[in-house]
Design a protein that fits this description.
heterodimer; A: mainly beta; seven-stranded mixed β-sheet; four-stranded antiparallel β-sheet; B: four-stranded antiparallel β-sheet; globular
Chain lengths: ~110, ~120
């Protein structure tokens, strides 16, 4: 199975900060990487698919980059409603595998 | 709009089985696979497998073979997951989800909490 390693596991930032979350695959997954946001008590929500494509309805402050094994989710200006846990998912190989998550809190 | 409505929380005893449902609406049920995902605090998110809602064909993550059984009822646009021989390690929130091309898991159910305890 492809292992997905996210960093950091925990992140504290202020409103307006630029925030980056990383995801590293144990082998090449091309650009088959999605990002999800999960707020407390809710199901995950798709933010980014295929590494850098913004899902419909997601604010443009969210962006994704990377290919191969290294990927980044960026929030250009953190908003209070962005407090959540963020996960990456590889859909290059079976079984699909998720990163361990990054918990984002406000400083 | 696409909706996936899951059945309610379950409390089950070790060694027993539970069957969770996921009722789809807002789209043609047989046009998209339904996947199932397990979420625990310790292990995070784990992919269980998917069912082709048209043919009934299935894929299981090796880890969940023998544990999960996926079925569908096309007449009610409902997917099911049965979990057998339950142990405390099966305590988790289970989600059904649907994709749209590369947009894997673009739509999620609200989750079903399964608690295994004697």
């Amino acid at each position: 199975d492809i292992q997905m390693t996210q960093s950091p596991s925990f992140l504290s930032a202020s409103v307006g900060d630029r925030v980056t979350i990383n995801c590293k695959a144990s082998q090449n997954i091309n650009r088959y990487l999605n990002w999800y946001q999960q707020k407390l008590g809710e199901a995950p929500k798709l933010l980014i698919y295929n590494a850098n494509s913004l899902q419909t309805g997601i604010p443009s402050r969210f962006s994704g980059s990377g290919s191969g094994t290294d990927f980044t989710l960026t929030i250009s200006s953190l908003q209070p409603e962005d407090v959540a846990t963020y996960f990456c998912l590889q859909h290059n190989s079976w079984p699909r595998t998720f990163g361990g998550g990054t918990k984002l809190e406000l400083k | 709009q696409v909706q996936l409505q899951q059945s309610g929380a379950e409390l089950a005893k070790p060694g027993s089985s539970v069957k969770i449902s996921c009722k789809a609406s807002g789209y043609t049920f047989t046009s998209y696979d339904i996947s199932w995902i397990k979420q625990t605090t310790g292990q995070g998110l784990e992919y269980i497998g998917y069912i082709n809602t048209g043919s009934g064909g299935t894929y299981y993550n090796e880890k969940f073979k023998g544990k999960a059984t996926l079925t569908v009822d096309k007449s009610s646009s409902t997917a099911f997951m049965q979990l057998s021989s339950l142990t405390p390690e099966d305590t988790a929130v289970y989600y059904c989800a649907r994709g749209l091309g590369a947009r894997w898991f673009a739509y999620w159910g609200q989750g079903t909490l399964v608690t295994v305890s004697s």
